[in-house]
Every structure is written in structure tokens, then in C-alpha cells.
Design goal:
By secondary structure, the chain is an alpha+beta fold. The chain is built from 4 helices and 5 strands, in the order E-H-H-E-E-E-H-E-H. It has a 5-stranded mixed beta sheet, sandwiched between helices.
């Protein structure tokens, strides 16, 4: 099995990440024009973590997380918002490598915990050592 290289996303990764995003199971339909505005902002953000897994010079997956300063946790947390691995590379350690890279980034940023708002991937994150602690609620604004 080939081990993926995990690195920070770069501007030239946009097409591959958007292609993966289109496969993401979610309530929203990705819009390329909006993506093209937001993607460079995420790359420049001091609070976003956007990594890609590379295999044979191709993007095989990505992870997006955000550092959030909190009061309840006595410091910053890392919230993982998106994890997507190309279906042909699933169950080969790519997702784990991306999550571990994000956790390492969180440690470097002195975050006190890493959280994931998910229901669909509950068992996956439990397998990675996460503990279920709360439900996640949202209220759409548009």
C-alpha cells in the first residue's frame, strides 16, 4: 500500500479539491464561482487548516478545519469541518493521515481539543480515538 504525502493545500490544488467537494455528502450544492472566491481566502487564513493527501502527484483527499478561540475550553479548539477522500482511495489510511496531520497542526497551535460535528461518520471518528460528547444543531440563514 502506498502512503500518502499530506501537505498544506496550494492554489494549484483547487480543481482537484472542488472535484472531491462535489462528492461530499451534504445539504448544500457547491458553486464553483463561490468556491473560487473562498478557496484563496482559506489558503491565506491564519485560522484555517486545509491539507491535501497526495498519491502519485494527484490529490486523493482533503481536510478542512478551523481554529476557534473558546471560553469553555480555556483556549482554542480545532473544529474539523470537511474530510473527503476519493472513493478509490478509501480504507487505505488516507483519511487517517489527513486527520492526524490536522491534529498535529492543532497541537502546534496549542489547541486544547479537536472536535468534529458529524453524525454520518460517527463510527469512523470513534475508531480514530474521538469520543462522542454532544449533538450538533444548525439553523440555516439563507
Amino acid at each position: 500500500m502506498n502512503t500518502p504525502l499530506v501537505r498544506p493545500a496550494q492554489p494549484h490544488d483547487a480543481d482537484a479539491i472542488f472535484s472531491l467537494l462535489m462528492q461530499f455528502a451534504m445539504s448544500y450544492q457547491p458553486d464553483r464561482a463561490t468556491f473560487d472566491v473562498h478557496f484563496p481566502q482559506l489558503l491565506q487564513s491564519g485560522h484555517a487548516t486545509l491539507f491535501v493527501a497526495i498519491l502519485n502527484e494527484q490529490v486523493a483527499g482533503y481536510i478542512l478545519g478551523f481554529e476557534l478561540l473558546t471560553l469553555y475550553a480555556n483556549g482554542p479548539i480545532m473544529e474539523l469541518q470537511e474530510l473527503m477522500v476519493d472513493p478509490q482511495h478509501r480504507s487505505k489510511g488516507f483519511g487517517r493521515a489527513l486527520v492526524e496531520a490536522a491534529i498535529e497542526q492543532a497541537k502546534q497551535r496549542h489547541c486544547v481539543e479537536v472536535v468534529v460535528p458529524t453524525r454520518r461518520a460517527r463510527d469512523y471518528y470513534v475508531k480514530l480515538g474521538f469520543v462522542e460528547t454532544a449533538s450538533y444543531f444548525k439553523r440555516k440563514l439563507s
